[in-house]
Amino acid sequence: MTIPLLEVDRLTMRFGGLTAVDGLSFAVGHGMIHGLIGPNGAGKTTTFNLISGFYRPSSGEIRLRGEKLSGLRMHEVARRGVVRTFQHSTLFAELSVLENALIGTHIRFRPNIFAAIAGWDAEDRRGARARAEEALDFFGLLTLADVRAGDLAHGHQRALGMAVALAADPDVILLDEPFTGMNPEETGRMMTLMRKLRDSGVTILLVEHDMQAIMGLCDRITCMSFGKLLAEGDPGEIRGNPAVIEAYLGGSRDVA
Amino acid sequence: MFVNFFRSGLSRRRFLSSAATLSGIGVLGATLPRKVFAQDQVVRVGFLAPLTGPVAAWGKPGLDGCMIWAEWINEAGGIDIGGEKHRVEFIPYDDEYDPAKARAGATKLIREDGVKFIMMLGGDPWPGVQPVAERTGMLFSTLLPSDLSPDTTTLIAPAEVHPIYNVTGVEWLAETRPDLKTAVICAQDDALGLPSVATYLAAFEAAGIEMLEAPILFDPATTDFAPVVTRMLARNPQIVCLDTCYADYVHPICEQLFQQGYEGQILSCTADFYEQIIEKTSKEFMEGFVFQFPDFDDPELNADFINFQEPNRFYEEYAQRFPGQWGAVSWEYASIMDLWKAAVEKAGSAEPDAVLAAMTEGGTAPHAFGEARWWGRDLFGIDNALVGNWPVIAIEDGKARIKAFRSIPDWYDKHGELLKKHMAAYNQLWDQRS
Amino acid sequence: MRSGLALLAWIGVGVALIALPHGLSFSQQEILVFLTINVLLVASYRMLTLTGEWSLGHVVIMGVGAYASALYSKHFGVFVPAAMLLGAMTAALIAMGLSYPLFRMKGFYFLIGSFAAGEIIRLLWKRFREPFGGVKGITGIPPVPDVNLGIWDFVFFDPISYYYFVLAVVSFCLWLMWRIERSPVGLTFHAVHWQDKLAEAAGVNARAYRTLAFVIASGFAGLAGALQAHYIGAVNPTSFDIEQMVFVLTWAIVGGTATFYGPILGCIVLTVLNEIVLRGLGFEQTRPLIYGLLLILSVLFLPKGLESLVGRVLPRRATSRTRAIIGAEEKA
Amino acid sequence: MIDLIAQTGLNALYAAAYLSLVAVGLVLIFGVMGIVNFAHGELFMLGAYVVVALYAGGQVPYLAVVAIGLAFVGVVGLLMEWTMFRPLRDNPLGGLVASIGFLMILQALVSMGFGVRMAHVPPFTQDVIAFSDRVRLPVQRLIVIGAAVVLLGALWLFLKRTRFGWALRASAQDREAAALQGISINQTARIAMFIGAALAGVAGALTAPLISVNPHMGHSVIVAAFIVIIVGGVGSLEGAVIAAVAYAFIHTIVTTFWDGVIADIVGLSLMLLVLIVKPTGLFGTADRA
Question: Is A61 inside any structural domain?
Answer without folding.
Answer: yes
